[in-house]
Structure formats: C-alpha cells, structure tokens
C-alpha cells in the first residue's frame, strides 16, 4: 500500500512538472535552444551560396562576408564604428526607457497623471517617430543630438504602453487586501504595484530594444561620420555589397543579443511567478 502511494505521488509530481513546463515554456535543459534558429538560418544561407541557388549579386556568401569583416576590422576601424553605434543606441535607449517608465508610473498611479499624459502618448503612437526626423533636424541640427533624441523617442513608447498596461492590469483585490491589513500607499506601491507591473515593463523592453535599433539604422544615414550606418552608406556609394551585408549582420547581432539579454533577465526577475504556480 505504501509503495503504491509513493508511485502515485511520483506520478502526480511528474504530471505537475509537465503541466508547469507547458505553462511556463521550455525547461532548463533546453535553455539555449533559441540559438538553433540562427544556426539553421546560417546553414541554409551557406548551403544556398555553395550550391549557387543564392547568387552573389543577390546575397553575398557567408565566407565573403567574413573576409569583408576582417578587412573592415583591420583597415577601416570597424571596432570604432561598432562602438560608436553602440554608444548612440545605448544612450538613446536609456533615455527612452527612463522617460517611458516614469511617465507610465505617473500615469498609471494617478488619474490626473493619466489625464495629462496618456492622451499625448496615444497621439504620438499614431505618428511614426521616423516621420519626425525632418522636424528634429530643424530643432537639434543634424548632429548627435538629433540621433539620440530620435532613438529615445522611438523606444519610449513601447516602454510606456506595456508598463502602463501592467500597472492598470493589477488585480484590485490586492488594494482591498492592503487596506484591510493596513499597508500604507507607498509600501503598497513598492511591494505590490511595481513588481506586478514588471512583466509588462520587460515586455516593453523587448520592443524598445528592437525599436531603438530600427531608429539607429535610420539616423545613421544622416550625416554620420562614424558608426555602422556610416560604413553602410560608404559601401553603398562604392557598390560594396559584401560590406553592406557585414553592416546588416552586425545590426542583426546587436538586436539578437540585446533581446536575449532581456529574455534572460525576464526569466530571472520573474522566477517568483513559477513558485506561485507550483
């Protein structure tokens, strides 16, 4: 009888783990499975180039891209261009995240704040940030300020929208419980509201990272003297398709690594949700 109970408990435990894994996604054993897609894509690219299905005039072969990368690294300060682009993207993204999070908190926790902030943000959502570049050039010139402001504004909106939704989506029963046990407003916001909005903030971060790179690609076409976009512009003028692909690959790696970092942060920061589901 005891052995039967132990077997039943193990079976139930195994079933619960399977249900939990289906609900939460892949387990730790396949944590790095998200590298499979890019590796398969690279293999298809290499196979297509080797067999002639992908013509060099359409897309440069991977080995030619590696050669061009080495030439740019040794002869044309590719590292300096990469660091310049990363600095623009990081500064613009940082300002956008800070502004979006602050505005979302003010709007999400105050009716007056929502009345003042949410409407203009929603209007901004309907106007593409890239369409505002001519106006930004008139305001800030064609230098570094315009580029950083564009990246900040384009990455601010997803942070605001998803963080605001996270704040507004918190169950009202938590507020009732806080009143019942006498928790102050400040403590309630710190320990319940902000952690509850964290999933929305991190989701907004994934969109913000992608948006910031989109803005970076565009603004570096405007009178840039350094950066990956500047390299691509020069390569376009001289018909260097392989160098253009090098720049595109670098942008892709930027985005993929940044998104992976956010996903790993999300997994660690939201580990408490797993314990709640068990």
UniProtKB/TrEMBL annotation:
Family as reported in the entry's similarity comment:
Belongs to the binding-protein-dependent transport system permease family.
Write the lineage as a comma-separated list: Bacteria, Bacillati, Actinomycetota, Actinomycetes, Micromonosporales
Give the matching PROSITE patterns: ABC_TM1
Which source organism does the UniProt entry give?
A: Paractinoplanes deccanensis
Mind telling me what this protein is named? ABC transporter permease
**InterPro entries documented for this protein:** MetI-like, MetI-like_sf
Entry's localization field? Cell membrane
Does 4Fe-4S appear among the keywords? no
Chain ranges of the ABC transmembrane type-1 domain: 82-262
Per UniProt, which keywords does this protein have? Answer: Cell membrane, Membrane, Transmembrane, Transmembrane helix, Transport
Q: Which gene encodes it?
A: ssuC_4
Q: Where are the transmembrane segments?
A: 32-54, 86-106, 126-142, 148-167, 188-209, 243-264
């Amino acid at each position: 009888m005891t052995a039967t109970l132990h077997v039943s408990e193990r079976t139930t435990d195994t079933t619960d783990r399977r249900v939990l894994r289906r609900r939460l996604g892949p387990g730790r054993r396949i944590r790095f499975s998200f590298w499979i897609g890019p590796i398969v894509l690279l293999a298809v690219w290499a196979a297509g180039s080797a067999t002639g299905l992908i013509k060099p005039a359409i897309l440069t072969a991977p080995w030619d891209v590696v050669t061009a990368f080495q030439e740019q690294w040794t002869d044309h300060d590719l590292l300096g261009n990469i660091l310049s682009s990363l600095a623009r993207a990081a500064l613009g993204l940082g300002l956008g995240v800070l502004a979006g999070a602050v505005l979302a908190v003010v709007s999400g926790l105050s009716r007056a704040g929502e009345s003042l902030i949410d409407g203009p943000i929603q209007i901004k959502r309907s106007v593409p940030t890239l369409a505002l570049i001519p106006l930004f050039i008139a305001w800030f010139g064609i230098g570094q300020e315009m580029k950083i402001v564009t990246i900040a504004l384009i990455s601010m909106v997803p942070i605001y929208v998803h963080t605001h939704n996270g704040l507004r989506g918190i169950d009202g029963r938590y507020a009732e419980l806080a009143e019942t046990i006498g928790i102050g407003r400040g403590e309630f916001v710190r320990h319940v509201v902000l952690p509850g909005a964290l999933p929305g903030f991190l989701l907004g971060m994934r969109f913000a990272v992608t948006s910031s790179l989109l803005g970076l690609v565009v603004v570096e076409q405007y009178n840039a003297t350094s950066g990956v976009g500047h390299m691509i512009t020069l390569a376009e003028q001289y018909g260097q398709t392989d160098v253009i692909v090098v720049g595109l690959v670098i942008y892709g790696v930027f985005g993929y690594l940044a998104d992976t970092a956010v996903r790993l942060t999300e997994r660690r920061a939201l580990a408490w949700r797993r314990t709640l589901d068990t």
